[in-house]
Amino acid sequence: MAEQINYERLLPKLPEEDIVGFAREQGAFRTNYLIYRHDKVYNPMQFQRVETVRVTCTCCGTTCYMDKHPVNCPQYARAPFGWWNSDTKEAVISGDQTVCPCCGCAAKTVHVGQMRAYSGEIVEDAWVSVLKRLPVEGERDRLALLDWCIRRCINKNGQTRMEIWPFTAWVVEEKKIVRLMGYVKNIGGAISLFGEWKQRKQFVDTYGKMQFLMPWDPAILEGTTAENCKLDLYIKVEGKRLVRYLALWRRRPAVENLLVQNCGHLVRDWIDKEAQSGSDRSGVPKIPEVNWKEKRPARMLGLNMEEFRRLRQDGWSTADLDRYRLVRDAGLTVRLPADMELLRTAEVYNINRMLEEHPKAEFWRTLRYLGRQKADWSTLRDYWRMAEQDGMDLTDNLVRWPRNLNAAHQRQINERLAVREREKAEQERALAEKRAKEREARRPLFAQRAAELERYTYELDGLLIRPCADENELIAEGKALHHCVANYAKSHAEGKTAIFFIRKTSAPDEPFYTLEFDEKSKVVRQNRGLRNCDRTEEVVAFEAAWLDWVRSMKRVKVCAKSA
């Protein structure tokens, strides 16, 4: 096995001289900034220094002083203050678009506090790709793809510094693609490169999207390891993932046949699809839609010559090809180009579901019907399912193909909602009857409990306490005070707990506080008022006096037994 060539010294150390100008022509670094900060200047009219705002324009380089403007938004403010633009007669703050008061250029306002904390600068990056022919002694020339990062750094004083450093490089060999990484030393300078290429055995491949590509002559491919890659044709159809395409071509050289036959847009879309889905984690696109065992473009796409001619002539997309092959492989006849227009009215997913879930004999009729109704397959399938459940005659054309599908579908949904509402009402009625029977069964128990607890009735200082008389009274107490005492009905009737009502003697029938009492331990479990509020001092004192009285009743009773 031949030793791997080290390309670190073979790659250019400096990019093209006009690379920054090219990036600007393509739209990079066109944003102008107005950088402002708080300052104080001497006012001869007032014989003292006054507060102002110093504004510096990165376009004309002029510094001017403007009036300070307070921030009206006290929370989540973008800056501590803004400034008044006398030209536009408006107050601006960091992040706003305005115009420079000196040169009139459009600019973005930035407060110095909003600039990058670690460097105190505004940083903008642009990536420019360059294709080069790389001579190798004793070997065929290589095709090299170099990505340069151009960085514009603007400091707090509005001064601009440009940096250019190597980002990634890709060298196409006979059987693989070698990647080099750019390492940069942090040395400042005006449009200077301080970095070097490094070739590593282990790294994470990032087959990214090209941003800007410098003009190149396809003639540089002749005689290189990428002579037949047809990269120029891929770029011609606006392909942006150059490295992914080169990796695909290196593994599947037959892909060049598709580009030669004006199918580059298909290859481009397939590569983009896999890149966005993350399915090509190795960096090399799989593109299962293509039969890579074949060499002829038509057979690679699973088409005959007439079908392939139609694809090229009508400019089929990847979705069109998927639609056509799904229907053709299902055994249906497709009349081109008329039926292709009909197929385009439905998504590939819906066509696949129709072929799987619906009789194929009705496929074309269904597709035309959905096109007229401006509906999708899921709506029609759902309507048929509900109609069948309701016992409707789907052999009747008016039932199977309603004149207004969306209205018929909504009508079926509304009927089901009405049925559910009726079922819900019936369930609620049955539950109410069940609860009424349970309350009726507990009525004697409540009467017995009221008689047992009557001895704990007590009155003092304008308040009284008495046991719950019946379940209806317990429910009314919970509704009036907005708490859940009604849930204690069963426990109270069975003697597991005791519920008492605290009332004002002036309003004995008006709910005030609800008390839960433990008869065995003679303690209060809880005592709550309106919306479960806590006791007032008056109620606390009344509760303590009542407990002392109840406990004294117990002591007297025990003494009587002892005697």
Q: What share of the residues lie within helices? A: 25-40%
Distance between the termini: 114 Å
Radius of gyration: 42 Å
Tell me, briefly, the overall form.
flat
Strand order of the largest sheet: 13-12-11-10-9-14
Query: How many H/I helical runs?
Result: 17
How does the major sheet shape up?
6 strands, mixed
How many beta-strand elements?
19
Structural class: alpha+beta
Q: Regarding quaternary structure, how should these chains be classified?
A: single chain
Query: What share of residues are in beta strands?
Result: 15-25%
User: Low-confidence segments, ≥5 residues, pLDDT <50?
Assistant: 187-193, 555-563
Write a brief structural summary.
By secondary structure, the chain is of the alpha+beta class. Helix content is 36%, strand content 22%. The radius of gyration is 42 Å and the shape is flat.
List keywords for this structure.
alpha+beta, 17 helices, 19 strands, about 575 residues, five-stranded mixed beta sheet, six-stranded mixed beta sheet, about 35% helix, Aminopeptidase
Can you describe what's shown?
- This protein has 563 residues and is an alpha+beta fold.
- Among the domains are: 1-172 and 179-205, no CATH class; 457-562, Aminopeptidase.
- It is 36% helix and 22% strand.
- It contains 17 helices and 19 strands.
- The strands form four sheets. A six-stranded mixed sheet has the order 13-12-11-10-9-14.
- A hairpin with a 5-residue loop joins strand 10 (142-154) and strand 11 (160-172).
- The chain is flat, with a radius of gyration of 42 Å.
- Mean pLDDT is 89; it is low at 187-193 and 555-563.
